[in-house]
Amino acid sequence: MLEDRDFFVIEDAAGLILNEVFPTPQPLYLEIGSGKGEFISRYPQLYPKYNFIGLEMSEKRIRNCLKKLVPELNPNVRLFRKYVDADILQYFAPHSVAGVFIQHPDPWPKRRHHRRRLIQAIFLESLAKLLSPGGTVQIATDHAEYAAWIVDIFAQSPHFSSLQESPIQMQPNLDNHVSTWFEDAQRKIGYEPHFMLYKSIFQETK
Ligand SMILES: C[S@@+](CC[C@H](N)C(=O)[O-])C[C@H]1O[C@@H](n2cnc3c(N)ncnc32)[C@H](O)[C@@H]1O
Hints:
The protein is an alpha/beta fold. It is built from six helices and seven strands, in the order H-E-H-E-H-E-E-H-E-H-E-H-E. It has a single domain (4-13, 27-200), classed as Rossmann fold. Strands 3-2-1-4-5-7-6 form a seven-stranded mixed beta sheet, sandwiched between helices. Strand 4 (97-103), helix 4 (121-130) and strand 5 (131-141) form a beta-alpha-beta unit. The N and C termini lie far apart (45 Å). Bound molecules: S-adenosylmethionine. The site of S-adenosylmethionine has 19 residues, from strand 2 and helix 6.
């Protein structure tokens, strides 16, 4: 019998273009850092005409996600255990991803650790090559200084423009907001999420 893990987890991506793992070709969205799986288990149920891949570096978190996923309810979801950085491009066809969701990326608050942050200029170069024209990047973080860092990095990129009146808003920016484990935990101790939403400005990239 096919176990849930076999259904959901892409175990070996060598030579695979991940857009092709779904039986039904549909616009593809990625979530980076799926954590305990609230977003990747609930949001795709609202959008059955899209496919979703949750990219998560931690095996423990992949197992957390699997506890929330059911093949009958989540046929359009897959998980891939991966530390995401600019190299993520190699797993997808160029300009083939409709959108990327990043809920509460690790803020690495100490200055000497800032280079470990996911959002970096080189990562945006990769995202620009990954996203289809008009593709979106949605980000939430409760860390005010990281939010300002993210806005700065996006402002310096020629490939993105904000879709919000103000680049940071304190209200959810998706029609169907899914509150995650980390959002709930941080709200309880007084940290409100900052929401950002960008669109890819398509231009030929080398
Ligand atoms: C602060 S937690 C947030 C989890 C979840 N998105 C939420 O909002 O509850 C960050 C998550 O991202 C994962 N993560 C951090 N950096 C990553 C990276 N570069 N690639 C993939 N996953 C990453 C961690 O393992 C962790 O599950």
